[in-house]
């Protein structure tokens, strides 16, 4: 043990002398490359002296005799004196090793600092701190007994030495991690300057350099003899020459270095350091290209300058988090909640925003009180929407009290020019929507100078186009939207009226209702199959009572518009309804509804949809039905409602025959109709064929419908059998 | 005896146990200081998210999505490719397709003849944007639009592609976009649902839409899309049955609410409270909905703007007008579907009809929102679920051809809501087959929309079956280049 100590003692003494030598003659020294490796191990090695020194300092604070702890019982057989001696010896060794490591670390640090070029301020402080720590370590070991004798000295000594270690370590951290590395998280983000205010170097370039470059090229260390801390250093350049050529980014060292591959030795920032983002690199490039201005303002550059465009975007990140800031306090959340109701929504603009947006709804429940009630929030309300409510002129007196209002929507309210006068006292109002109100151009001319409006909406008001032009001329900074004015000369056709009563079969009588959704429209109609016109045809005003078969044809008219297309609808009166129907032949299995009741359900069917399960379809078989009545009835006609869809091979039937009698097995032929084959371009629609015959009393009727045997020559599928689709049978 | 020794051996007294436990708990407590919102209950919802309040002030408060169902061809509308006209009928070079997958409908074709647009293109607006002649009205407002020519998707067939666009996943049962928005922003007008759906159908070859597209998925059922139909009763089951007047209905609701209240006090289930509120909302909707459906007070100018078809319920024009009215009344998300854009054949003929249905109303909606000062806060989106191939499907003729599904590039447009107007974003190659610049994936599209509505798409989440779900699932980047 003694031998080890002796050697250690020697090395320690040698080391401290070597260190002092290095300090004294640092200007003359050049480091061989093999020694540089040792120097570069300084950031790793320095942790040993810190820990060892602190532990050895700590031992002087342990009260004497505290060594009889839990472990003491283990070597109870050893003598007390020998135990204390042994302990002291180990502590002595600890102090030696600590001092040694401090000296070695300091030497390494010196070697490392000599490698660099220009010493920064922090580096100088760190260097002297390191030397001091090494000296403290040395003293603590070699003068321990002396110190101990003056017990009052040893503790203050350790305190001072500990502080020195901490401060030196902090400077070291600043060197490797950048300035204020430790405190950065609690200092908060630097605020970005507003683009209009920003100075080119101070607000855009310098922050980038500070974040990514200055830790090596700045105050604390000056690698490559380059300081990027301020404009001067930047303009001076470094060891390799000027940093950039204004206007020539491609030829500039700075741009070259930041675009070298990551593996390249000369790449900046080096691979192990935080890298420039794409935006930052693009900004540096654009900055040099635009002439590398420094003290000028960003907005002094031309508007389309790429640096100005990029930097503006950089300073005000689009979309996200671009919450406008307000200088008033948020309102009480409970207060807001209590003022919310079914017809009044009050919500913050966003999370953590004190500003409120208010929407009022329900023209039947609105009154001025609904506005008065929100006055407790008058500071916070920045948006107010009163569109389509019966807001009166004097209600705007309440609105005027919302001192921070930015956006006001009064579209289609009862506000007039008189009311606008009240809005004069809204200093922050930016957007004002007055479409569909009774305001005039004169009122706006009076109001606008008092406000700082940026957008104004005046569609559908009394302001004509010449007034609008003069307004726009007078207030060039205001965006005035007058909206769609339309081609005044253009006349277009109305949409047709709607026959609300569904077409179909009725018993006895039916109320026929029509309507048109648009205001000011006249519906004219005919019931005799002729085309309605705008002069002689009756005007629809109330539901028509119909008690016979009619086809109504209707058309809509309005001054300033072309009349609409016509609509038509057929209503068929039914005399008797069969009590049951028997299918005497089966329909095609694909178009065979399950219930025969569909044939007498009063619905004529949807001719656009033959596969909806309501149509009975026949192609190979003829259709045959027995209509049975429980009591004898007198009948004189049978009507069939069918489909015509020529492209779909659905044609009117060739022939319809009607038989009748009191008994199913004894029927007499009553009558028949045949149907001409339709022409090629007839549209798809519903068709009705009626068979008339002499009135007769019956309990059974038989119907036979013969589908077209072969499609006409003009048809794509000529010669094939046609289809017949039947949806309704009406007996009178 | 042995037992007692064992206990002694373990040597844990109650006091010791408690004191150690307190140290352990102390350490846990210390560690938990680093977990934000651990005990504030926010973890139950999502950290920092309160339903109804966006993460940051939104640019867009509402969305109107004019979905062109069936996938309109980008090559006949907004993506002008004169090379295709020059090379009409020549085979698609293999170097362009590069073995990419096709649908089963054309993968068996022996040749892939390139086909150029049947319609002419012209430049419009200050932006000089190329638009096809079938959109004369949209051409006029092109300076208000941001046309994205570089959309791409993963699905190649209608159902998965549509479901992907609407819910962020190709399989069903996830919440629809509108439901997410309703969940995130809440309702603006408590008398109307936050998410409404309007359907229309053109004469072109069509594909169906189905209610899973506007389903609330695992979100609360109040976020489900409410479908408005074109008939006398726009919302099913909303009207009182014949013979029941408002007073009787009110009385009945009050009684039901009383009974529900008893249950609520007994069980404390918040779903009961929700039920009471929903009944009340339906009652208020009974007056609010007919007011909105009524177009009789619209001015002549408005009807001329949208075209007189807007007076015919169930048309795309009527739905556009209704969408404006709904959004004006605070409905957050209005989803329109116009069906009939699936032109596998007979394209030149069918597309003209489809375009006639949608051109004027789509442009009118933009103009109408603008003149009311609402376009700034309303995001309008127009587009289909994928694009169409640059080669002909089936029999080739210059004036009669078809196009198959093409997910690799297609065009949509957006307007208002903080999107840059008068802009064309993204670029496809000269054949209109692949994207060469600024691709926008469906997830990116969703992320961008949520961003405009004030949400960080990564933080608008809902915990379900043990994990958090997002509209963008695990992908998506906000396309910042198109934001104002």
From TrEMBL, chain A:
Keyword presence, Heme: yes
Q: Does the keyword Heme apply?
A: yes
The UniProt record lists the Cytochrome c domain at 173-292
- Residues spanning the membrane: 7-25, 45-64, 93-112, 124-141, 153-173
Q: What species does this protein belong to? A: Chitinophaga cymbidii
In its UniProt record, a GO molecular function of this protein is: heme binding
The family database entries (Pfam families) matched by this protein are listed as: CHB_HEX_C_1, PSCyt1
Name the record gives this protein: Cytochrome c domain-containing protein
Keywords associated with the record: Heme, Iron, Membrane, Metal-binding, Transmembrane, Transmembrane helix
UniProtKB/TrEMBL annotation, chain B:
Tell me which SUPFAM superfamilies the record gives: Alkaline phosphatase-like
Q: Which branch of life, at top level? A: Bacteria
Q: Which UniProt keywords apply?
A: Membrane, Transmembrane, Transmembrane helix
**TM segments?**
21-39
Q: Which InterPro entries match?
A: Alkaline_phosphatase_core_sf (IPR017850), DUF1501 (IPR010869), TAT_signal (IPR006311)
Gene3D superfamilies in the record: Alkaline Phosphatase, subunit A
| Protein known as | Sulfatase
State the organism named in the record. Answer: Chitinophaga cymbidii
